[in-house]
Amino acid sequence: MAITIGKSSDNDYVVNDLSVSRHHARLVREEGIWYLEDLNSSNGTYINDVQILKKKVAPTDKIRLGATYETDLDSLLKSQNDYSEEFNALKQVYDDYVRAKVKIQSSNQFKTRLFQSLPFALLGVIGMVVGFVGKSSSVWMMFSLLLAVLAPVVGVYLGARQSAKIPQQLQDLTNQFKIDYVCPKCGTFLGDIPWESLRKKKKCPISTCQAKWTNE
Ligand SMILES: [Zn+2]
Hints:
The protein is α+β, with helices and mostly antiparallel strands. The protein has helices spanning 73-77, 84-133, 138-163, 165-180, 195-201, and strands at residues 2-6, 13-14, 25-30, 33-38, 45-47, 50-52, 54-56, 63-65, 69-71.
């Protein structure tokens, strides 16, 4: 984990000061301790007015870059752009989304078919009963005929009603995904880009964001 400091805009902590070099210094954490390291700057890096090359730095230390720019550890740590941990958590968000989407689509397909064929199955059973009960009765014959007409109508209606639920369920899922699958720093929705592809990019696709997703 490192925080780069300097005048160049590609640093984590950008300093606008004439005596600060483009890539002036960096903070590195080694075994839980923060070290300030000078990156061969023109005007030097100082801890409590003593020039250093690499030295352990504490929150109470006064840090100076170049001739006049002063700061401290806490201020520098605020510009930390390492979001590896938060980014790793997004893998679960993406996997859950894909799984839920497939589940909605396949379960609705099954239910739609079920509802469409159910009235026909019911008709078959009733037809058998009619056959036993009232062979000679014209009322039973009419009843059986009516069912034969109604069954497909009811089937088509139930099937259509079920398949109409899909867009709403998918819409709800997508809305939640747009809230959850965002850059942990700038909050920009990361689109339908698979998590593995995002990891290969190693940083947020928004160029001004500078959130980094890998430790190396
Ligand atoms: Zn971002």
